[in-house]
Recover the amino acids of this structure.
C-alpha cells in the first residue's frame, strides 16, 4: 500500500504548481487530491515517452522532476511507451521524422529511457507502472477511431502549434499525424489517467485526452504543462541537435563544466526546474547581492551531478573544476594526443587531438587565441612545432590533451 | 457466363466516353477492356451509393446510364452500400448532414435505391453485385487505417473542393470526414474494382481509390467522371432541395410536363446524358433549323417517360399534354377540390386546392393572371365567388381541380 503525504492539500497543490507553465485546472487538482486521499486511492499520473529518442537530457528531466513530486506525495507514475505509433513509420517515405522501429528496438529504447529516468523517478512497483499503448490500440476498431475523430474539427487540428508552423512553411503534414493526438487521448482513457504531464508542445494532445475521457464518461484528467528548458546558450530550447544540452549520462566533469558555463540569467530557471531547493533559498542564491554567481552555479552544478552520479562525484568534479579554472592548473587526468610526426603544424595537431571538427574550425580556434602548448599561446595557424612526449595541449578552458609520440 | 460485346475495343471506348467529363485514363480503359476480353473476364465497375438519400432523380441517373453501358458491353456493376459510414453519424451533434441510420433503415433505403435504379440498370445476377462496405471496414485494424492515412497529406485533403469551400466559409469539417475518402478508396481495393464511376464531386475520392490500389499491389482502377446534370431551371445543379428536378418515381404526366418546360439550350445535354440516342441524331434534333424545339422536347419527354414507366404511358402523357396545352382543353382526369363554403375568396380557394404553399403565394398567382375558374381569368385577390360543383379551377398551365361542394 502506498503511503500518502499528510501535508494539507493546499500545500500539496502549491508544491505541485512549482515551475508549472499551465495547469488545467488547479481547482480540479485540489479536488482530485482531496478525493483520492479520502478514498485512500493513488492518483494515476500519466507521461508518454517517445521510444524513437530514448537518450534524455536535462530538458526532458523537467517533467520527470514533476512526476517525482507526485510520487513523493504517494501517487503512481504511469509511463506510456508509444510503441504502436513507432510501428507506423512513414509509408510514403517522405516524412523522416518517424523511423519504423522493430519491437526489439522499441523495448531496448524504452529500457534505456527508464534506466536514465530512474535517476529521478522512484522505480518501485507501487510508484511506477509502465504500459505500451499497442496493448489497447491494437484492439481499437475503425468505428471507435471514427467516433473519436468526429469530436475534433480540421480547423482545431490545424491550430495546433506544430502543425500550424509546418503548414505555414508548406511542409507536408501527413493525415495519419492528425490521428496521433487522438491515440494519445485514448491512452488516457484506457489507463484512467487522473493527471497527465507534458511539455508545452504537448498541450494540445493532453487536452484531447481530457475531451475523450469526458466522452467515455470518465472524470477528465488534470493537465500539467511544464515549460521548455532553455539550453546552455541561454536562448534556444535545450536539444541534442543544437548541441546546447547536458545529457543525463554525461560524466560528472562534463556536467559540472557545462553548468558552470551557463549565463547567470538562467540560474533561477534551472534551480526551479531541475532541483528541489525551496523557492526562498533559490531567490537568495540567485541574488548577486547575497551570492556570487560563480558560487551559486557551483551549488547548482553539484546538485545536478549528485542527482545523476553521486555526492562524491559532485564534490570531485567541483574540486577539479576549481583547480583547473580558478588556479589555472592543468587537470590531473587527461587524454593522450598521439602526434603523427615529430614536428607538426598547430592546426593539424588540434584537429588530430579531436578538439575541432574541421581544419577550418581548428584554424579559427588558433586565430582566436584559444590554443596553447604548455600554457604558451600559439596564435599563428602556420606555426609548426617540434613535439615532445608529455607536453600539454590546451584548447579553450575545458579541453586538455597530453602529447604522446 | 457473361456475353461480351464483339465491337472493336476502340469503338467501345468511344461509346463509354460519351458525355464523360473526365477519365483517368482513356488509354488504361482501352488496355483493361482488351485484357478482360482476352481473359474472358468481366470488368468490375464500382459505384458507391449513399444510403442516407435513397430517392433518386434524373441527376443521379447520369452515372447509372454510364453503368448500363458497361453492363451492355458484358461487364458487372458492383454497387457499394456505404452502410459503415452511415453508422458513424455525428457524435459531436454539430454536423447535421449525416444522420445515424439503423441497419434496418439502411437496408430499406438501399432497396429503395436499387428498385429505382433498376429502371436503368440490368439487375440480373451476372451483371450486378451489391455489397455493403461494413463487410470489410468492420475488420479494418487501426494500423491499416494509419498506414493508408499516411499516404495523404493534410494539404491534399484541404484542396478537395467540398472541404475547401466549407473551410473557406468557416464551416466545421470534422476530422472523421477526412477519413471518408480513404474508406471509399479501400472499398475499391476490397472489391478489386477495375473502373469506378462518379459525379465530378467524387473525383478526389475516386482518385484516392487508384492510389490505395497501387499501395495494395492492384492495377489502379480507371476513374470515369460524369458531369453534374443541370436542373429544369437551366442554371443550377439538379437537386431535390432546389425543386428543379424530375424524380424517377414521378408520374408520366409530371415527368413529361417537366421535360416540356426545360429551356431549349438544355436539350443537347439531356439527350446526351439521359438517352442512348446516337450523337448524330441528337445533333439533328437539337438544330432548330431541322426540328422545332417543341417537337424535340416531345421526343425527349417520351424517351424519358418510356424508360421509367412504359411506351404506352409515354404516348398517353404526350397526347394528354398536346390536348391540354396545344388545344387549350382541360384534362380528362383531375383531382377534386372540396369547397369549404358556398362562396369563397379566390386566394383561399387556390390554397385549399393545394396549388400554392401559402396564402401569399396564392395571392401572387392570382395577381400574375395564373388563376382561372371555368377558363375565366380571376386577377383580383379580393374576389369572392359563388361556387358550383363541377367548375374547373386552373392554376398555371399544369394544375387543374374540379370543385366539389
Amino acid at each position: 500500500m502506498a503511503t500518502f503525504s499528510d501535508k494539507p492539500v493546499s500545500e500539496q497543490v502549491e508544491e505541485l504548481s512549482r515551475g508549472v507553465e499551465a495547469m488545467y485546472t488547479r481547482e480540479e487538482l485540489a479536488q482530485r487530491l482531496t478525493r483520492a486521499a479520502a478514498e485512500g486511492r493513488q492518483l494515476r499520473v500519466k507521461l508518454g515517452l517517445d521510444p524513437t529518442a530514448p537518450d534524455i537530457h536535462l530538458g526532458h528531466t523537467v517533467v520527470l522532476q514533476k512526476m517525482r513530486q507526485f510520487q513523493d506525495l504517494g501517487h503512481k507514475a504511469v509511463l506510456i511507451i508509444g510503441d504502436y505509433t513507432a510501428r507506423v513509420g512513414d509509408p510514403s517515405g517522405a516524412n523522416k521524422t518517424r523511423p519504423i522501429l522493430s519491437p526489439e528496438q522499441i523495448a531496448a529504447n524504452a529500457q534505456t529511457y527508464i534506466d536514465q529516468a530512474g535517476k529521478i523517478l522512484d522505480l518501485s512497483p507501487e510508484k511506477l507502472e509502465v504500459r505500451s499503448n499497442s496493448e489497447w490500440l491494437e484492439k481499437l476498431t475503425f468505428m471507435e477511431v471514427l467516433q473519436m475523430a468526429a469530436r475534433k474539427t480540421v480547423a482545431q487540428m490545424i491550430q495546433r502549434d506544430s502543425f500550424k508552423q509546418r503548414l505555414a512553411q508548406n511542409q507536408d503534414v501527413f493525415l495519419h499525424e492528425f490521428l496521433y493526438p487522438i491515440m494519445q487521448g485514448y491512452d488516457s482513457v484506457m489507463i484512467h489517467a487522473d493527471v497527465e504531464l507534458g511539455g508545452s508542445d504537448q498541450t494540445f494532445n493532453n487536452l484531447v485526452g481530457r475531451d475523450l475521457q469526458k466522452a467515455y464518461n470518465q472524470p477528465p484528467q488534470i493537465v500539467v504543462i511544464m515549460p521548455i528548458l532553455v539550453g546552455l546558450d541561454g536562448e534556444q530550447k535545450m536539444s541534442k541537435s543544437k548541441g546546447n544540452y547536458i545529457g543525463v549520462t554525461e560524466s560528472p566533469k562534463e556536467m559540472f563544466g557545462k553548468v558552470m558555463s551557463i549565463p547567470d540569467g538562467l540560474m533561477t530557471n534551472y534551480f526551479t526546474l531541475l532541483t528541489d531547493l525551496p523557492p526562498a533559498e533559490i531567490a537568495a542564491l540567485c541574488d548577486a547581492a547575497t551570492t556570487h554567481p560563480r558560487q551559486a552555479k557551483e551549488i547548482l552544478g553539484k546538485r545536478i551531478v549528485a542527482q545523476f552520479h553521486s555526492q562524491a562525484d559532485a564534490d570531485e568534479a567541483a574540486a577539479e573544476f576549481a583547480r583547473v579554472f580558478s588556479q589555472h592548473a592543468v587537470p590531473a587526468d587527461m587524454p593522450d594526443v598521439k602526434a603523427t610526426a615529430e614536428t607538426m603544424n598547430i592546426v593539424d595537431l588540434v584537429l588530430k587531438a579531436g578538439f575541432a571538427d574541421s581544419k577550418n574550425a581548428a584554424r579559427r580556434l588558433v586565430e582566436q587565441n584559444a590554443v596553447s602548448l604548455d600554457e604558451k599561446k600559439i596564435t599563428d595557424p602556420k606555426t609548426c612545432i617540434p613535439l615532445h612526449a608529455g607536453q600539454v595541449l590546451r584548447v579553450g578552458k575545458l579541453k586538455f590533451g597530453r602529447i604522446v609520440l
User: Anything to note?
Assistant: The two ends of chain B are 63 Å apart (CA to CA). Residues 293-308 of chain B form the longest helix (16 residues).
